[in-house]
Amino acid sequence: MQAQINDLRLEYTDQGTGTPLVLLHAFPLNRTMWAPQIDPFSAHFRTIAIDLRGHGGSSQGHTPFTLEELATDIKDLLDQLTIRQAIFVGLSMGGYILMAFYRLYPDRVKALVLADTRAQADTAEGRAGRFEMIRTAETQGANAIAGIMTPRLLSARTIKTNPDLVGTVRAMIIHNPVETIVADLRAMAERPDSVPLLAQIARPTLLLVGALDQGTPPSDARFMADRIPDAQMTVLPDAAHLSNLEKPEAFNQAVLSFLESIDSN
Ligand code: MLT
Question: Residue 264's pLDDT is what?
Fold first, then answer.
């Protein structure tokens, strides 16, 4: 589906009925990373997976952009769909955007699933790494970024044994324009520290993380779970950063049982 939001065309999937459940994708991917979640989630919820501006089928809009602008694109799309409140699942960069969204529009959030993400801003070293990657993207293109990112996103075992999934992830990365990749990296480098937000999150929250996630390890999820009031946390065995793709059944079960538990409260 498509929506015209100001000067942007946003593409999204909208499947199922009931409470809206919005899925926010990671860097530098697109909404198709949620393929294993769409059918199971839409059996219970109106499931909406959005291509963030410049990603997948959405148009570019202006660059650079901030994560707050990406959050506002989502709010504008929900306005257009007359959705007042939704459950959100954000993985990695999607989690950073979800925290920005909560800071800006807390009333629009019914519950949060923060997957394979962290609350802290980048360290000086992390920021320098982003700018190095920007130079690589600009000089060598999206293929080089796929080469760098794939081993960060997937476990060594997946890379060895699941060429189809590796190919799917690489294709998502390569499909994105370099301009988008650069804008994402700049936006993530400049994102504010969300640690002060954690104690203010007054909605049911689940932290989900792959046990083998190296970029945002279980210790980052634990840090958030300890600071968000009454947060739940689940570690997914044998999954790395893209835990929803590497262990979809365990990921889906963790999300659905969390949502069931808050529904019965
Ligand atoms: C992501 O998966 O969205 C990125 O790895 C996040 C990051 O680079 O911080």
Answer: 67
- Ligand 1 centroid to Cα of residue 63, in Å, is 19
Residues in CB range of 35: below 8 A, 6 or more apart: none
Q: Which residues contact 77 (CB under 8 A, 6 or more apart)?
A: 3, 5, 10, 12, 50
pTM: 0.97
Given the CA of residue 152, which atom of ligand 1 is nearest to it?
A: 5
Tokens of 180: 């988008």
Distance from C-alpha of 85 to C-alpha of 78, rounded to nearest angstrom: 8
Please give the distance, rounded to the nearest whole angstrom, from the Cα atom of residue 37 to the centre of ligand 1.
20
Chain centroid to CA 96: how far? Answer: 7
> Under a CB-based contact definition with an 8 Å cutoff, are residues 75 and 85 in contact?
no
Tens digits of residue pLDDT in 138-170: 999 999 999 999 999 999 999 999 999 999 999
Q: 9-22 as b/e, with b when 16 or more CB fall inside 10 Å?
A: ebbbbbebeebbbb
